[in-house]
Amino acid sequence: xxxxxxxxxxxxxxxxxxxxxxxxxxxxxxxxxxxxxxxxxxxxxxxxxxxxxxxxxxxxxxxxxxxxxxxxxxxxxxxxxxxxxxxxxxxxxxxxxxxxxxxxxxxxxxxxxxxxxxxxxxxxxxxxxxxxxxxxxxxxxxxxxxxxxxxxxxxx
Length: 156
Fold this sequence. Notes:
The protein is α+β, with helices and mostly antiparallel strands. The chain has a domain at about 45-150: GMP Synthetase, Chain A, domain 3. It contains 5 helices and 3 strands; from the N terminus they run ααββααβα. It has helices at about 20-30, 45-60, 95-100, 105-125, 145-150, and strands at about 70-80, 85-90, 125-135. It has a 3-stranded mixed sheet. Helix 2 (about 45-60) runs antiparallel to helix 4. The two termini are about 30 Å apart.
């Protein structure tokens, strides 16, 4: 049997003991210098964050049918006073994966797009126009140059 330093039963639904767990976790974490300004939440670019949001929605909607077989490439990302405009390609390896992603009459893509757009609007606190396309690019997962261009760090 494993030996645990502490056991804290929590409830995500009611929040019971969540604060206690956070305090306990923090007590085990070493003190250190800040690596980012306090208001900065990540070292990743906005394009990367948006691509990951779209990819998450893809996985939530078709993860069983297209496991790890999709990535997202941001083609256009610009913001004016009232709107953030994003165009993105969802890349898959096979034609069958493309059909699964699009769904009957495009319904699955509508769901993915709507869910991603709502999260992006929340992240940027602005209206978002999100345009998504699905494209077959065979072997994208084995192409180091393509992976780097998509924001993946192969040295980690």
